[in-house]
Amino acid sequence: MWDGKTVSVIFPAYNEEKSILRAIEDFRRNAVVDEVLVVDNNSTDRTAALVTSAGTRLVSESRQGYGYALRRGLQEAAGDLMIMAEPDGTFVGRDVYKLLAYAEDFDMVCGTRTTKELIWGSANMKWFLRIGNLVVAKLLEVLFSGPSLTDCGCTLRLLRKEMLAVILPECTVGDSHFLPELVILGLKHGFRIIEVPVNYRGRIGVSKITGDLRGAVKTGLKMIGLTLQYRLLGKPVV
Asked: What are phi and psi of 195, to 5 degrees?
């Protein structure tokens, strides 16, 4: 619990048996975390069994997609403050305190992986990923009169339950470009958003989204397309 509010951590998981238990333990180590929720997105390995064996809450999302898994987690989580993270070892559990420090003044606190001193040597944050995230983030900032934004794709972020009650029903994205949609909808509704620098470590296994240049480019183009559709049409073409 933080400042009288309960805290949930949400992990979307697809075949994360090599890292899921370590991630759960890392985030549970924070006394302020009241709940860890894992959303199994059709894993074919032992992810679900390991989560259950660890006594962690598990829900399933049959619609395949990173966005669908996160949306399900945000719907199911019980906390007043909800923190999304990755179960692949890239994020550091103690960084939840950085997000929580701003939770009283802001409705969404986004992590940014662009601070070079916090990018670990093993992290998958090559120049094209850093530039791509920065370009899309600045596009969001300019087109929607947002705060200073430098990273459009960082999963580690905090959202207040009151904000989610407004924007979650309007979410349309079930794929890897879900994160910018949260920011766009938040800004459109006038919610307060800020970025804070977080650690970014090497992933256990290979990223399903940006594991190669082709995947990174594809995701970036989807994010740009979504942003332009919201700005020009008011909503994305589904």
From this structure: -110, 145
Task: Assign a CATH topology to domain 7-233.
Answer: Spore Coat Polysaccharide Biosynthesis Protein SpsA; Chain A (3.90.550)
Across the beta sheet with 157-160, the strand order is: 57-60, 35-40, 7-13, 81-84, 157-160, 108-112, 193-197
CA–CA gap between residue 158 and residue 85 (Å, rounded): 9
Task: Kindly provide the b/e burial profile for residues 128-159, where b requires at least 16 CB atoms within 10 angstroms of the residue's own CB.
Answer: ebbebbbebbebbbeebebeebbbbbbbbbbb
Pairing of strands 108-112, 193-197: parallel
Asked whether residue 207 carries a pLDDT value surpassing 60, the answer given is no
Q: Determine if the pTM surpasses 0.70.
A: yes
SS3 210: coil
Q: What's the token pair of residue 111?
A: 């992590």
Give the residue extent of every domain in the chain.
7-233
Dump pLDDT digits (tens) for 5-19. Answer: 999 999 999 999 999
How do residues 102-157 score in pLDDT, each as one tens digit?
999 999 999 999 888 998 877 777 777 888 889 999 999 999 999 999 999 999 99
78: helix, strand or coil: coil
